[in-house]
Write a structure and sequence with these properties.
Layout lengths: L9 H11 L6 E5 L12 E2 L9 E2 L3 E4 L13 E9 L13 E5 L11 E4 L3 E4 L2 E4 L9 E2 L10 E3 L7 H9 L4 E5 L3 E6 L4 E2 L10 E2 L2 H11 L3 E4 L7 H13 L3 E5 L10 H8 L1 E5 L3 E2 L5 E5 L2 E6 L3 H19 L7 E7 L12 E9 L2 E4 L15 E5 L11 E7 L10
Parallel strand pairs: 5-6, 13-16, 13-17, 14-15, 17-21, 19-23
Antiparallel strand pairs: 1-12, 2-11, 3-10, 4-6, 4-7, 5-9, 8-9, 18-20, 20-21, 22-26, 23-24, 23-25, 25-26
Helix pairs in contact: 1-6, 3-6, 4-5
C-alpha cells in the first residue's frame, strides 16, 4: 500500500470532468409517438399554419355577421338553414344573404361566413334559426395560424421533447423527429470478492450491488447502462475489459480497485489509457476516485463501497452524464434546509457528503457507513459540508442539493 498524493478539491474534480466530457454527436430518427423525453437534434419549424383553414371552436351555426347587425330587443332575425358541416367536411357552396349552416366543432367555416353563433343562443324552427343578438365578426372562429403560423419554431435543437412539443409536431403532420442518441455508459466492476446476484452466497464473498445503483443513475440522466459481470483482481484482465468497453461506449465507469492498496490496479491502468485528470478527491465518503481522458472519452474509477460509489454518482458523475446526454442542468437543484438532528461531523481537510431525507420540512441525515447501502435509503438530497471539526447541530440552516426526479422528489417547500 502507499499513501494518496495531493487530493483534488471537489469543485476542481467536477470541473475537470465536465470540461473533458463531450456531448454525444450520434443521432437517430424516431416516431413522434416514441420520442418523449429525448433531446431534439435539429430545430423544426411549422411547414404550414395551424389551423390551416378557418374553423369553428364551438358547435353552432356559421353566419354572415352583417345579417345580424340590425338585431336588437324585440327585433330578432331569422336565418334559413341551407346545410350542415361536420369536422371532417367542407361546405361546397358560398353562404348567401339570410342563410346559415349548422357546423360542428372543428368544422371548416363556409365561404361567405365570418362568425358562429352557438346552439344555446338561438331558437331553431323548421328549417331556420332565430338569432336575438348581433354576432360580431370572428366570433367563435379560429383563423388560419391562430395556434401557430407557418415558419414558427415548433422545437429547438437541444431541448428535451415534452408532450406538448410532440403534440405540436403531430398537429403539423410531422411523423418523425431527429434526436440525439442516448449515450452508452459501460460499467466494469472488479474484485475477487464479488458475486453476481442470483448465485448462492459464499463466506467471504459479497454480492455486487453497484451495477444496479449506477444503472439507475445512468438511466435517469438519459443514458443507456451497459453492465458487465465482475472481473477478477488481475490488472491485465481489468485493462482488457476497460479497453473493450471504450470501443463500444461513450463513458466507462470502473468500480472497485480505485484506492492505494496492493490490489487497487486502476491507478496504474488509467494513466496507460490516457491522460490522468486526478486520483483522490478531498471528500468523505468517496475519496478513492480517479479519472482519465482517453481521446474524447472518459474513464472514471469509483470506490467499491456502495455508499461511496452512489454518493459520487450523484455529486460528481450526474452532471457529467447529463452533459454527455445533452440534457440541461446538473440533475439536482440547490436550496436550503434546516437540520432535524445532528449531522455528520465534518472532516479536517475533507468535504463531507451527507445524504438527506426530509420529514415535516426538516432534513435528516441517512448516513450509516460507506460500505452500507442503506446509508442512502430514503435520501432525496445531499449536503456537502466544508472541511472542519465542528458538528453541524440540529436547527442549523445548511445548503442542500435536491436530486431531480426520478432520482429524487419534487423539492419540498
Amino acid at each position: 500500500m502507499h499513501a494518496f498524493g495531493r487530493l483534488t478539491e471537489v469543485d476542481v474534480a467536477r470541473r475537470r470532468l465536465l470540461s473533458a466530457a463531450r456531448p454525444v454527436r450520434r443521432t437517430e430518427t424516431l416516431p413522434v409517438t416514441e420520442a418523449f423525453g429525448r433531446v431534439a437534434a435539429a430545430t423544426i419549424r411549422a411547414p404550414f399554419p395551424v389551423p390551416s383553414f378557418a374553423r369553428t371552436t364551438w358547435d353552432g351555426y356559421a353566419v354572415r355577421s352583417k345579417d345580424t347587425t340590425a338585431v336588437g330587443p324585440g327585433h330578432p332575425v331569422s336565418l334559413r338553414i341551407v346545410g350542415e358541416v361536420f369536422a371532417e367536411q367542407a361546405y361546397p357552396g358560398r353562404l348567401g344573404a339570410g342563410e346559415t349552416v349548422a357546423i360542428a366543432t372543428g368544422g371548416a367555416i363556409p365561404a361567405g361566413a365570418d362568425a358562429v353563433v352557438i346552439f344555446e343562443e338561438v331558437e331553431r324552427t323548421e328549417g331556420s334559426i332565430v338569432v336575438r343578438r348581433p354576432i360580431p365578426p370572428g366570433d367563435r372562429i379560429s383563423r388560419p395560424g391562430h395556434d401557430f403560423p407557418r415558419g414558427s419554431v415548433l422545437v429547438r435543437q437541444g431541448t428535451e421533447l415534452s408532450a406538448t412539443a410532440l403534440g405540436t409536431l403531430a398537429a403539423c403532420g410531422v411523423p418523425t423527429v431527429a434526436v440525439y442518441a442516448r449515450p452508452v455508459v459501460a460499467v466494469v466492476p472488479n474484485g475477487n470478492e464479488l458475486l453476481v446476484p442470483g448465485v448462492p452466497p459464499r463466506t467471504g464473498m459479497i454480492f455486487e450491488s453497484n451495477n444496479a445503483t449506477i444503472a439507475a443513475v445512468v438511466t435517469a440522466a438519459g443514458g443507456i447502462p451497459r453492465l458487465s459481470d465482475p472481473v477478477p483482481d488481475d490488472p491485465a484482465v481489468i485493462e482488457r475489459a476497460i479497453r473493450a468497453a471504450l470501443d463500444s461506449s461513450d463513458l466507462v465507469l470502473a468500480t472497485g480497485g480505485s484506492s492505494v492498496g496492493e490490489r487497487d490496479h486502476l491507478p496504474r491502468i488509467l494513466p496507460r489509457l490516457g491522460t490522468l485528470l486526478f486520483h483522490g478527491v478531498a471528500v468523505r465518503a468517496g475519496k478513492p476516485t480517479l479519472a482519465a481522458r482517453v481521446g474524447d472519452k472518459l474513464v472514471v474509477g469509483l470506490p467499491g463501497h456502495p455508499t461511496s460509489c452512489l454518493a459520487n454518482m450523484y455529486w460528481l458523475l450526474l452532471p457529467v452524464l447529463r452533459k454527455i446526454a445533452r440534457r440541461a442542468g446538473p440533475g439536482f437543484t440547490e436550496g436550503w434546509a434546516v437540520l432535524g438532528h445532528d449531522a455528520m461531523a465534518p472532516s479536517p481537510g475533507l468535504s463531507t457528503i451527507v445524504p438527506l431525507r426530509f420529514e415535516n420540512g426538516r432534513a435528516y441525515s441517512t448516513f450509516r457507513g460507506s460500505s452500507i447501502i442503506t446509508s442512502l435509503s430514503g435520501a432525496t438530497a445531499f449536503a456537502m459540508l466544508p472541511p472542519g471539526r465542528r458538528v453541524v447541530r440540529a436547527g442549523t440552516r445548511i445548503r442542500v442539493y435536491h436530486l431531480d426526479p426520478p432520482l429524487g422528489t419534487v423539492r419540498p417547500e
